[in-house]
Specification:
Number of helices: 13
Strand content: 15-25%
CATH class of the largest domain: Alpha Beta
Number of strands: 10
Helix content: 40-55%
Order of helices and strands: HEHEHEHEHEHEHEHEHHEHHEH
Number of domains: 2
Largest sheet: 6 strands, mixed
Structural class: alpha/beta
CATH topology of the largest domain: Rossmann fold
CATH architecture of the largest domain: 3-Layer(aba) Sandwich
Distance between the termini: 43 Å
Shape: globular
């Protein structure tokens, strides 16, 4: 897969900005105190769907439209934020959208997708089973299957890293959660497009290690998913195209436990009064794990999503 170039990302930004303006990045003093060094947070929780994924949905559908290939219906699978992205963009283009989620998925993410006009289908026990069912449905219906990882998604997602890297040129390292890989690969794309030398550190759940295991092995290694909190990182099978991009460009990978993620969710709330879902707090969890090696550096974190169910967040804040 060819990564988006600087002109690609700049053009994608114009597509994104028709829906919303660049999200902010802030250097929160309490977080700097907690981490012991300069730290910037990119607030992708401030998009219209509360997560970075909307950027990719906008550019994916824009590319379909430019090719004259808009379908009557799209089908995809998600744990929530990708599905909201698809729902938002499909509605804007007048395309029917069906999304498959696993049983027990976030109640509030499901409600948000339905509010965007998505036909929601519950199937399977995890994302991989939902994804395989979505592929079968798309084939049966003659609908367009939207993958969770694709070059046209990367075009849009890259715009948020492009915004951050331009706004904070002194960054030495950024921490990037890995779900299916679009966020991390887009960080690579923006770094290369702008000619930056910063380090990109991948973050995975210690309870969903397919990317950590696959990067170590040099090929896709399936791993069980047992995380109860980081649903945005609950991937059982790494994407081979994403893996090929990340292998030469990630500095290293950090595994974070659900307990560390919960601690980071509380820290983001107390230090910034922003709500982070599990995956949205994973970057901070990883940086805190490595804080002693970060002194004197400028660190970038992504609060990539804030869509956590209220009862779950209440338990996290209470330390339950």
């Amino acid at each position: 897969m060819t990564l988006p170039s600087l002109p690609d990302i700049e053009a994608a930004a114009q597509v994104v900005y028709r829906a919303f303006q660049p999200t902010p990045q802030y250097a929160w003093p309490l977080l700097a105190q907690r981490l012991g060094t300069e730290v910037w947070v990119k607030h992708e929780n401030h998009t219209p769907v509360g997560a970075f994924k909307i950027r990719g949905g906008l550019t994916y559908f824009d590319q379909l439209a430019r090719r004259g290939a808009l379908p009557a219906e799209v089908v995809s699978a998600t744990r929530g934020n990708h599905g909201q992205s698809m729902g938002w963009a499909a509605r804007a283009h007048g395309v029917k959208c069906s999304i498959v989620v696993p049983h027990g998925n976030s109640v509030e993410k499901n409600a948000a997708m339905r509010a965007l006009g998505v036909h929601l289908i519950e199937y399977g026990t995890d994302f991989q089973e939902s994804r395989e069912h979505a592929m079968r449905l798309a084939a049966e219906r003659g609908a367009h299957m939207v993958p969770s990882f694709h070059a046209d998604l990367l075009r849009g997602v890259s715009t948020y890293w492009w915004e951050l890297f331009k706004a904070v040129p002194q960054l030495d390292a950024v921490y990037v959660p890995i779900g299916q890989g679009s966020g991390a690969c887009s960080a690579v794309a923006a770094k290369l497009a702008l000619g930056r030398t910063l380090r990109i550190v991948g973050v995975v759940s210690a309870h969903a290690t397919t990317y950590a295991d696959s990067l170590a092995a040099g090929h896709v290694v399936e791993a069980p998913v047992t995380t109860q909190l980081a649903d945005g990182m609950a991937c059982r099978v790494a994407d081979p195209e994403a893996l090929a991009i990340l292998l030469p460009h990630l500095d290293h990978v950090v595994q974070v436990t659900d307990a560390e993620v919960a601690h980071a969710m509380r820290a983001l709330y107390t230090d910034t009064h922003n709500v982070a879902e599990g995956a949205g707090a994973a970057a901070l969890a990883a940086a805190l794990q490595e804080k002693h090696s970060l002194q004197g550096q400028c660190v970038g974190l992504t609060l990539c999503g804030g869509n956590v169910d209220a009862p779950v967040f209440a338990q996290v804040l209470q330390g339950v």
